[in-house]
Each structure stands twice: as C-alpha cells, then as structure tokens.
Amino acid sequence: MTTQVTKGIKISVSTNFEGTFFKNYKMHYAFGYTVTIENLSKDSVQLTSRHWEIYDSLNDLEIMDGEGVVGKKPVLNPGQSHTYNSGCLLTSPIGAMRGHYNMISFTDGKKFRVYIPSFKFSAPFALN
C-alpha cells in the first residue's frame, strides 16, 4: 500500500492485477486499485475533481481529468474516510499512476490540492 498526507488529508492506494484480454487486436492488461481518502484535519472538506497521470511502459503518458471520483463528490468531516475502487487498462504488464484531487474546505472556502502518491502496476508474470 502507498500512502501520502497533504494538508491533513491522507490518501492510501492498493493495487491488484485483474487479468489480460484482447481488444482491437491488442493485448490489454487490467489493473484494479482501491483508494481510501481520510480526513485527519479539523476542517470539513469536499473532493470536487481529480487529475490522473497514467504511465504505461509501452506508451506515452496519458492525462485524465474529471469531476469527483466514480460519480461522487464526497464530503468528509473530520475523522471520516471515503473508499472507492476503480481500474486502469494498460497495453503493457507494467505501469504506474499518480495525480491529485482538487478539494474545497468548508471552514474558509479555499480550494486546495491533495496529492495522490505514485503507485505501480505490475502483472505477477512480468517480474522475476
């Protein structure tokens, strides 16, 4: 598990290999990841959007931006957490992701970034 704390918001990520399949005459590698967002601060906050940088060892960097996470914009009061599952398709058995969440504090109305630590994807058969 990979963990990082930014401004009192703790992000923890774990990954797993889901399998392979063919799509458009190409082999694809499916990975899942679970993210837990914990509010360790004294302020209530809301996640408004996300930014991902996806690295595939055989392709260029892919940037993905979007609203919320898996269709939600969770509000986290002090001491609360939110966990969600998502996935990523790569064209190689090794890759990584990193990024940030854009959040807003309900205490002062200020927007801020919470960084998501870099986490790796690797199919079990790709490593010695």
Structural commentary:
It comes from Cellulophaga geojensis KL-A. By secondary structure, this protein is mainly beta. The chain contains no helices and nine strands. The protein has a single domain (2-126), classed as Immunoglobulin-like. 0% of the residues lie in helices and 69% in strands.
What secondary-structure arrangement, pairings included, does this model have?
Blueprint: E1 2-6, E2 9-23, E3 26-39, E4 45-56, E5 62-67, E6 75-76, E7 81-90, E8 94-105, E9 111-122
Descriptors:
five-stranded antiparallel beta sheet, four-stranded antiparallel beta sheet, CO2+/MG2+ efflux protein ApaG, 128 residues, mainly beta, ApaG_sf, single chain, ApaG_domain, Immunoglobulin-like
Number of distinct beta strands: 9
Largest sheet: 5 strands, antiparallel
Rg measurement, Å = 16 Å
State the CATH architecture.
Sandwich
The general outline is elongated
Helix percentage: under 10%
Number of domains: 1
Brief sketch in words of this structure:
With 128 residues, this protein is mainly β.
